[in-house]
Amino acid sequence: MITTKRRAGRYGLLASSTLIAGLMAGAAMAQDAGLITDQPDVSDNTIKTIIIKAEGSKAAATAPTKASVDATQPQSIISRPYIDLVVPETGDFTNVALIAPSVSGTQGNGAGYGDAKLVLRGFQDAEYNVTYDGIAYGDTNDPSHHSNTFFPNSTIGALVVDRGPGAAGDLGQANFGGAIHMFSNKVSDNFGFTQKVSLGSFNSWQVLSVLQTGRIKSLHGLKLFVNLQERSTDGALSYFRLKSDNQEIKAELPISDNWNMTFLFTHNMNFSYSPDNDGATLAQVAMYGKDFSMSNDPSSPTYYKYNRILKHTNFGYVRLNGDLGNGWTLENTAYTYFYSNKTLSALDTTGGTAPGTYGYAAGVDPLTSTAKPTIANGNPTALSGYDKFNYYDVHGDILRVNKDMGFGILKMGGLVETSDTLRHRYDYAINQNDPYDTSTPDYREKPCVTIETAASATPVKCNPDNRSVQYDERSWWTQYQLFADFVWTPTDRLTITPGLKSVDFERNNAGKSKSKPSLTYAATPETATFKKTLQFLTVNYKLEKNWSVYGQYATGFLIPPLKALYVNDLANSDPKPQTSTNYQLGTVYNGSRISVDADIYQIDFKNKFTCNNNYCTNQGGVQYKGAEGQIAYAFDFGLTAFLNGSVNSAKDNDSGLTIGQAPKSTLGFGGIYRKGPLKLALTYKNVGEQWAEDGEEAEYKIKAYDTTNLVISYDFGRITTKLGVDNLFDNRAITKIDINGAPYDQYHFQAPQNVMLTVAAKF
């Protein structure tokens, strides 16, 4: 019998403070201790300057989102004070960015408790860059992102949503639909230690320990920032449990008066019971409710022990920057990041594949028989599963050289990056007596027929090594990007920035003889090379010191996904890169009490990718159009009221219909109150109607939905308490539909109301 009641966990608070205590002692011996009195911020000089200019007025400084008067494209700057107060303690970058206009997405298991995807103006994840301290990262099959596997909320000192491809010097794999830039916390000159403990709904807890050593004179002024986080939850969805930990260390060392070195390294581990493809069918929702994900029934593929994921990631860099003299500056960043995903999953948790559909034993010799496994010759109670592995290791270097010419600044540089990727999926028969036993192959991949759906086709004998292989791939890339921007300031009011970027991207695989043996692949490696020169031009004119207008013309570029090299008919699979041409106009005003910015945009998107098992090709394009705005007003009594929103259109060039997963609008508003030790925040976000897939099919229309969050915080001095309520009114609307064909479509809903209490102590 299936039950969906969550088992109460007994997880103790882990001892993450042990290392911190040792480092505290060493730092305290090196200097006198002092209480941290300023809010966490960022060390990066570029974003620090942007934030200082953007927060030049009281309204802008206290608003959740704002733009700089120096902006050359639409942007939303979100600084640490907002993140620290309003964003859920367990959240990730998606929770931070959601307050911005034209941004949408949800996490059905609770903030930070699952993988979430953001939509930006209708552009999907993998169609825009996500960066950390200026380094773009993402999967290597396509540049998609796993929101809770690298950088939790506590590691983000500021975040900027750029709604545009940026300048030529914005580097990454997806200079296409925009960017989400995260920046690490600053390393303070002063010693301090903060301990946070959070307890909340769904049997959730989190422990966060933060150390700032301050400058250590005996080590040439070295200063360290250490951030250790551990957490556990049973999740909002049934049996969707997560345990994770994250460690980040950042060090800054002054080498001389003009040269500095920065080192950062972070590691993250997530273990969860979760389906590889989550979401509940309407039948499951009708029977078990909107919180259904998995069950405790070993006879069902939804049994939670059959569905588990272990992820390890790390990310690090060493950065050297300094003054070369005569107006020249240099910055060089060597970086690496790593991702490992080991997934064990039932084949189908929707009920669309009955037990025994794929047999694996019962009298059939898997190596000699030409019979396709069926219920008749298989085990009628068999459950099929698979072992999925995804591993990649990326190394790169970014060089930036600037020359101040008096009338402008020439910015030049480049990126070189390599990757190595291993991916496989092996089919196996689930052992109901031992959910962790993957030793029995499931031979549903064994018949190597040319047309898998043809019942009369004669199966071809398979290599024994391939009989349970869905795919087994190795691939790598090498990419080069060279850029030049010239920031020309002919007058104090006018800034004109032309730029060029050359992209050279080579992708390889290591041969396909073992990849999807039911398809007819060549055994030799395949190589695809993509080259493009991108053009940029921006203008910013200051009508007043605190009021500017700007315009942008920019081109974007996105290479085809890795699956374009893993198709049956490679000769006819030659997709071209997707391209975009962006036109944007906007204005920014930061007054003493009011902060306003608004923009309009049009984006011409060409060479849209489409793939099936036989080939990949380009098919048409999309026109993106819209208007966006942000406004905040600061009252004398401590309240800042804000309002932002967007009207968005993303329509297919051929049909004229809205593409899938592209909301027509967003709306955000609320207020933040700060008076003495008391802080209050009430925020509201509405995401407009959309369709789950292209074509505006009525049955896949998703209505508008909204979320209201409330936060109350009180500072007692060294002790601060915070109570947060997410989804205050417990709205449970549909947010996404994964289309598998009715009745097996999978529905995603807003997470239920959840509460978290946080106590923080500063020393």
Automatic annotation (TrEMBL):
PANTHER family: FE(3+) DICITRATE TRANSPORT PROTEIN FECA, IRON III DICITRATE TRANSPORT PROTEIN FECA. Residues 93-179 form the TonB-dependent receptor plug domain. It comes from Asticcacaulis taihuensis. Keywords: Cell outer membrane, Membrane, Signal, TonB box, Transmembrane, Transmembrane beta strand, Transport. Residues 1-30 form the signal peptide. It is found in: Cell outer membrane. Residues 264-728 form the TonB-dependent receptor-like beta-barrel domain. Its main location: membrane. This is Iron complex outermembrane recepter protein. Belongs to the TonB-dependent receptor family. The keyword Manganese does not apply. It comes from the Bacteria. GO terms for cellular component: cell outer membrane. GO terms for biological process: siderophore-iron import into cell. It is a multi-pass membrane protein.
